[in-house]
Amino acid sequence: MTEITVRPLAQSDHADWQRLWTAYLTFYETKLPEDVYALTWERLFTAGEFEPKGFIATLDGNAVGLTHYLYHRSCWSQVNNCYLQDLFADPDVRGKGVGAALIEAVKQEAGKIGVKNVYWMTHETNTTARKLYDHVARRTGFIEYDLM
């Protein structure tokens, strides 16, 4: 198997990022206006403790996955938590370790600044992703509620 490379997003990744994020949103039957794409891309490169960050995964030189994550404060800890907000691998590379490599990259990056809690959500029907998540993390049992 060819090696998966995970690295921080670069400005030169815009087209690949937009393609992958669009595919992720499509998977969740969601569309966002272009101004949200533009603002998100800008925020990914804005300095700041709580600004979102991102990684891109490549396989054979092709962008095949991405993740967005962000840090936030917690009333339960002196150090920040890390929320892995978006995770996507192209359908044709699923099962090849792309998702696991992206999760590990976020975990390692968070660990560099002392963050021990990296967490995320997925839809209960996302069985493919849940197989990975059940393998690399523990399920907390919490149920999400949303006012919007």
UniProtKB/TrEMBL annotation:
Pfam families, per database record: Acetyltransf_1 (PF00583)
CDD domains listed in its UniProt record: NAT_SF
The keyword Transferase appears for this protein: yes
Species whose genome carries this gene: Mesorhizobium robiniae
InterPro entries: Acyl_CoA_acyltransferase, Diverse_Substrate_AcTransf, GNAT_dom
Protein name stated in the entry: GNAT superfamily N-acetyltransferase
Domain N-acetyltransferase: 4-148
Record's keyword terms, sorted: Acyltransferase, Transferase
